[in-house]
Design brief:
The chain is mainly alpha-helical. It is about 55% helix and about 5% strand. Helix 22 links the parallel strand 4 and strand 5. This is ATPase AAA-type core domain-containing protein.
């Protein structure tokens, strides 16, 4: 219940945020058009930052909402908001002409940090599959994905180096982790017990009066000081287990001399009086007994007084304790009401508990869906049973009234509407002819029959001329629009682009959909108290209305068939009364709709299924045997270590430079491309290619893409495709595409994709025939992938300039170059790698180490730590601390010595990237034009001087 109320309140907060964002966008649409790209960039980037926060809130609502009817509203809003966010991001990329964008100005304006607008994995990932396909994918053991470029960056996951086993001795597997935990626990126990002993001994010495209470003279026990050791307990050498008592220092006393002392078990022997006692002695004894009784009463009173005093003290402290607790509770409630503290219980495992609660709530979605479907079925059955006959009677009465009204005014019966036209629903909507219109139509037909052939010919020519004029008018309007676009482009080229926020490129369909969905929600849910529906049950009133309309539509065709026959009987009787020949009404044929695309072209017929006679299991087994379907390591895109370029915004916007990107920006770009791989219909690229030197984590990113989307991985690398004969490539790709559609979401990976498009195949790779895939890849795979399908083609390349530019460029929709490691990314990599092996202190010289090794690939840094910090070296860390010189010497002592990629080699990647990627190509042209203009300006100034 509490969780439902929390989610309901969070949804209300999200709705308020949505209203605020839409209001902000409405204000932006009132801005005057501007030609300053920096102003437009600030406006769009600020709006983008707001949408990022809104999308995070709506995604969480979509993930945790169980009430089915509300979930439908949240789905539309979340999908539209994510689509709008992607549109704004694309707009920023088009303005900056780069995949790497910088919005630092908006962050300063909104007082945010880069992490606040960082693209995160949507919480509704991954797309759920059916149990049948889950069982299919888990039934076979798959081969792991391998990389020919050796850039998996898995040094942290490598096992420790162990010496080779001695064949003369049996191999005994040791649980080293458990042994270390036991040894550490024993060491902690030993030191803790020694600490307790030292504290106790100090107290005995420092406070003897407090710890050595004065013994009673009549009750002294001899407690000796002894050592002891329990055999079932771990023996701790540095600590002697002792028992300290309050009198272990006291000397033994002879208790026999104490008065009134009776040793335990001693019985006083009875003595027989030989002489009669005197009266005085008897009286004395009686007086002693009375005194003793008075003393006993006094002791009882003293004991009672002590008990009462103790009870009063206990009660006083208990009341004070209760009052303190009450004040704390009131202060907590007041602070929570004012929003000063978070009511959620904090703890070390808070994140894990939150994720577990969300996962358990997410699993209940299926239960609520089934309950909603069952409620719909039950309500429909109830309406059919209870209201069905009355509905049919109402429909019949309405149509008969239409017959009667038409006959009273026109003395005829109109044509009965066909079912494919909508049936008698047209009568309810008033879309049929009125009696007056019917009479006019009959008069027109009568006059049409009386016309001569010449008149008909003239009218046909006039209609033809009118159609030609309308056609010419439409062509003139199209030409006028084209001319306006040409003039606008010429004006933009001469004066610069004008950014008008009222144009459709800014106010898109996603924005309008959000407005309509929010207005519809406020209208429908205005009288619904969402906090009261603690069980999150469906609203039955809406289900009743929907099912009533559905039952009405289902019963109307049945009634139409009966009333159509009744209308024919009436028409037959009318013809008999008017002494006319009865002609049965011919049913009007339905016009066949020609399937056309956007430009009026006929849709291509889908190719026949070449494997219709085979089962899904057999196709899956075939691909597994050929090592096409493979497993992969579970990774996250956040595992790709790298920092952001924090100086790029000023250099790009104020200094007109083209700064290099940083590794951290790659995470945001790839994650934004994956938004369409979830359950929401969000646009995504069909394919993209990752380019970069060896060791920069291309294969790791492919595995992260598969892990984040929970995709099935298809490997089409040249080594995998080599055994397939060229004649069977069409069938092979058909099977892959068919299985990729069945097992969505799926990722099709091509490692070293440039080999598929080689300009010239190297001699040592001719036996693989890597280029045979390029002849069929575009036609039989990429073009057949639909945009709405959750299929993604991902390629990696470490030498893209060896491929043919044309085919390579057509096969991949987007290209992304992995930047060189800068100072910030190198420092993060060193910290990450060293913390995996050993902890490093604040005094470790990471900054100079990162400066010296700037430019080295992540794989080189991880390998350096792995080979430097071996087991033997880590055993000596206590007496020989690690130094930065050891890590640097690894690169210099290695034969051959390792060096970072040179600028000349990296320029090959940049050159290819600026030719292949559309935005990079446009930005290169823009920067070239700016440099030429700047050179001309400097030349003019030099001439003037």
């Amino acid at each position: 219940m509490a969780a439902q109320e929390t989610i309901a309140r969070f949804w209300l907060a999200s709705k308020a945020e949505l209203e605020d964002v839409l209001l902000h966008e409405q204000l932006i649409q009132r801005f005057e058009p501007t030609k300053d790209p920096r102003v437009a960039h600030e406006v769009i980037s600020e709006l983008y930052c707001r949408y990022v926060h809104l999308c995070r809130m709506l995604d969480r609502c979509y993930d945790q909402t169980l009430q089915v009817q509300k979930r439908q509203v949240v789905t539309v809003l979340a999908e539209s908001a994510n689509r709008r966010m992607m549109e704004l991001q694309l707009k920023i990329k088009q303005m900056e002409l780069s995949e790497f964008t910088y919005i630092d100005g908006a962050l300063r304006e909104l007082h945010l940090i880069p992490e606040d607008v960082q693209v995160v994995r949507p919480c509704y990932f991954p797309l759920e599959r059916s149990e049948e396909f889950v069982a299919l994918t888990s039934s076979r053991k798959l081969e792991p994905l391998t990389s020919s470029s050796s850039d998996e960056l898995s040094a942290s996951e490598e096992s420790e180096e162990e010496p080779p086993p001695d064949p003369r001795r049996p191999v005994v597997r040791r649980d080293r982790a458990k042994e270390k935990r036991v040894a550490a626990l024993n060491l902690i126990l030993a030191h803790e017990k020694a600490r307790h002993a030292r504290i106790m001994l100090y107290n005995f010495k420092a406070h003897p009066k407090k710890f050595f209470a004065k013994p009673r003279e009549d009750a002294i026990l001899d407690f000796h000081y002894e050592f002891y050791h329990r055999p079932d307990q771990y023996m701790l050498i540095p600590v002697k287990r002792t028992v300290f008592t309050w009198d272990y220092r006291l000397k033994k006393k002879d208790v026999v001399d104490f008065p009134y002392y009776r040793p335990p078990g001693w019985v006083e022997e009875a003595t027989v009086e030989s002489k009669p006692r005197l009266v005085a002695e008897v009286k004395a004894e009686q007086a002693v007994e009375e005194v003793e009784e008075e003393e006993d009463n006094t002791e009882e009173l003293i004991e009672l007084m002590i008990n009462n005093r103790a009870a009063r003290r206990i009660q006083r402290y208990w009341r004070k304790y209760q009052e303190r607790k009450r004040l704390i509770r009131e202060r907590y409630k007041k602070s929570a009401f004012l929003g000063m503290i978070d009511e959620m219980e904090r703890g070390p495992d808070l994140g894990a508990r939150i994720e577990q609660a969300e996962a358990e709530r997410r699993k209940r979605k299926l239960e609520f869906d089934e309950g909603f479907v069952q409620a719909i079925k039950d309500e429909k059955a109830r309406i059919l049973q209870q209201r069905g006959p009355w509905i049919m009677e109402d429909i019949s009465d309405h149509i008969r009234a239409w017959f009667r009204d038409f006959y009273d005014h026109a003395h005829a019966f109109d044509r009965y509407p066909e079912i494919w036209e909508g049936g008698t629903l047209l009568v309810i909507r008033g879309e049929t002819m009125t009696p007056d219109e019917y009479l006019k139509e009959q008069e027109r037909k009568a006059l049409e029959k009386k016309k001569s052939a010449e008149q008909k010919k003239k009218e046909a020519e006039a209609r033809k001329k009118l159609k030609e004029k309308e056609k010419e008018k439409r062509l003139a309007e199209k030409e006028k629009i084209k001319e306006m676009k040409r003039e606008e482009k010429a004006r933009e080229k001469a004066e610069g682009k004008t950014y008008d926020y009222k144009k459709p490129e800014f106010a898109t369909n996603a924005y309008l959909t959000m407005q309509e969905a929010l207005a519809s929600y406020e209208k429908d849910w205005y009288f619904v108290d969402e906090l009261e529906n603690k069980e999150e049950l469906p609203i039955m009133e809406w289900i009743t209305l929907d099912k009533f309309a559905e039952v009405h539509q289902e019963l109307r065709p049945i009634v139409d068939e009966v009333l159509r026959a009744e209308r024919e009987l009436l028409q037959k009787a009318l013809c008999k009364d008017n002494k006319k020949k009865y002609k049965p009404a011919k049913p009007k044929k339905e016009k066949k709709k020609r399937g056309k695309g956007k430009k009026g072209k006929k849709k291509k017929k889908e190719a026949p299924d070449l494997t219709a006679d085979r089962t899904t299991d057999s196709l899956y087994e075939e691909l597994v045997e050929k090592n096409v379907i493979r497993t992969y390591k579970k990774r996250s895109i956040d595992d790709y270590i790298g920092d952001y370029n924090y100086a790029a915004y000023e250099r790009r916007n104020f200094l007109d430079q083209d700064p290099p990107a940083a590794l951290g920006e790659v995470r945001d770009i790839i994650r934004s491309w994956l938004f369409g791989m979830g359950p929401l219909a969000i646009p995504k690229p069909k394919s993209f290619c990752l380019m970069g030197p060896r060791g920069y984590g291309k294969t790791m990113l492919v595995e992260a893409v598969c892990s984040e989307t929970d995709s099935v991985l298809f490997d089409l690398s040249p080594a995998i495709v080599a055994p397939i004969p060229p004649a069977e490539m069409t069938m092979f790709l058909h099977v892959i595409l068919k299985m990729a559609r069945i097992l969505q979401p799926t990722v099709i990976s091509i490692d070293e994709a440039h080999k598929v498009f080689y300009k010239k195949v190297p001699p040592d790779e001719k036996h693989l025939d890597p280029t045979k895939l390029s002849k069929h890849l575009l036609k039989h795979l990429i073009k057949k992938i639909k945009k709405e399908e959750k299929i993604l083609l991902v390629g990696t390349s470490s030498a893209p300039w060896l491929a043919k530019m044309g085919k390579f460029k057509k096969s991949f929709e987007k290209f992304l170059i992995l930047p060189k490691t800068d100072y910030g990314s190198t420092q993060l990599l060193w910290r990450h790698a060293l913390n995996q092996k050993v902890g490093i202190g604040k005094d470790f010289p990471l900054s100079p180490l990162a400066m010296v090794t700037k430019g080295y690939s992540p794989q080189q840094i991880l390998d350096c730590v792995k080979h430097t910090l071996t087991i033997r070296r880590r055993m000596r860390l206590a007496r020989e601390p690690l130094t930065a010189e050891e890590l640097v010497e690894h690169f210099l002592q290695k034969v051959p010595a390792e060096y970072p990629i040179t600028d000349k080699d990296y320029d090959k990647f940049l050159k290819f990237y600026r030719k292949a990627d559309k935005l990079a190509k446009q930005r290169a042209k823009m920067m070239k034009a700016r440099q030429e203009a700047l050179a001309k300006l400097k030349a003019k100034q030099a001439k003037k001087k």
